[in-house]
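Table S7 (text form). Paired inputs.
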Amino acid sequence: MGRRWGVVLTPENQEMEVGDMGDDVLEKKSVLLLQNGVLTESHVKLVREVPLTIYLDGQELVTLLCTGQYPEDLAVGFLRSEGILDNWAEVSSLRVDEKAGVVWVELREKRKLRQELLHKRTLGAGCGRASLYYQPLDGIQIKNVGPGPRLSPERIVDLMHKASVMGALYKEARTTHAAGLATPDQVVVFREDIGRHNAVDMIVGYAMRNNISLGDKILLTTGRASSEIVLKAARVGIPVVASRSAATALGVALAQSVGITLLGSVRGGKLTVYCHPERIVF
């Protein structure tokens, strides 16, 4: 796969795990650069954008546009955060054909999901997402998240800063979003992709496949805190969502309804608490 643009910290090995550079993630392109009125030839690094099609029980479910990294985690995370899977034990097999850009997921108990999902499919506003399988108002049907951690604004800002400096792919190409899964002490998993939804789904998929509890974690994202991101967090029980960007009105309403502490504009020593401030120790 070349370079795996992500970081994982585990209790057994607290050092960042980052692979070697590969040509399958970044491409070099010759361009003309106009700067201070002078036109010169230059080179830029471009992030690849490839389709990844997920098949569930032999039937085509969705095609995502992504970098192609971590296809197993992306597929499983998508299924989980869209409410199709509840836990990893439901999966009987998972196969990936990276050249073809296909992931096959087989469930132990087959489900008649296709027509139900297609009737509910809506076009999302996010990057790298071909389609989404929920209606925004579905958030009111989700159980409230658990109590979660309590942490200071300074810790939140520090965690976001730590996640920001992990963004190696963004530093190279400036075209990616990132997501991090954190405890109050450290960022434990970090992912980058062209789509903010994809980055979150990779986090969810990794946690699900590795039996990582999410009820005591913080979701960090560089993208806006929209209803889609809040719903993903709610479905997996993440109690705190923090974004470097701002939130949407529906994102705040959904977070309020399911008990999520939603934070925005976390940067430069500042943040905005949109709802459920009881987890923030001022």
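Next pair, protein 2 of 2.
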Amino acid sequence: MEFRVLGPISAMDDGIEYLPTAPKQRHLLALLLLHANLPVSTEICSQELWENDPPPSALPTLQTYILQIRRSLARSPSVRSLKSARQKLVTGSRSYRIVTEPEALDLTRFNRLLQEGRVAQRNGDDRAVSRTFRAALSLWRGEALADVTPGPHLRERVNSLAETRLGMMEQCFEAELRLGLHHHLLSELGALSARHPLNENLTAQYMLALYRSSRQVEALEAFHRLRRILDEELGIEPCLRVRLLHEAILTGDPRLDTDLVEGLTPGRERTVAVPVSRPSG
């Protein structure tokens, strides 16, 4: 059975979904999957499902939800029985734990590829960085748990995953810009910088890709758009690195056409923190 949380929640076996139908049961399964192979206390489960207003029957209701999840899993060919489902979804001491194989959860595969990509970064292997991070990003099918309305614990984890995904994209783009793939990145960077208008790093990457694609005017327009938004929203100027990149584009600095652009291209000098929004509906 394969579980997926990097998009709508899924519990699939042989091409067929075996999710419980009730929203609260899906919600509980999502919480357990984001802590796969780790015990999640009944207190955390209750807080996630009902926040500060649990019903008097919270514990027996949780037990009922767990039973319904097990029944859904038991219908799948790889689980087959309620007895096997109890080994897949384990009751502990005031806790529950879902057991998944290393490659059976997309989040586990994503984290493995993230670590492999970081090793490639330390080794200076941009091709491996691009290949590994692209494989990790391909696991996403939209926002994490897009069809689950999160409570306090899931909300924190989902927001953290969104930040990790965006950071991976930026690092992937950096490697691919060094590989000379600026033409291929224009559409992706344009869309992402528009979706995250306060992200200076994405805009700077887009500016560099535009400049290297002989679109200097559009690169300058991207800078002025960023400066206007930062001023209107936060009352600040773009960070020094982005301003230096802007000046280099204005003067046609030859370093912009090479890998030797240290100090002119975006780094992590400043990160503007903004809430990660979930799609409505």
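The chain has two domains: 2-98, 182-281.
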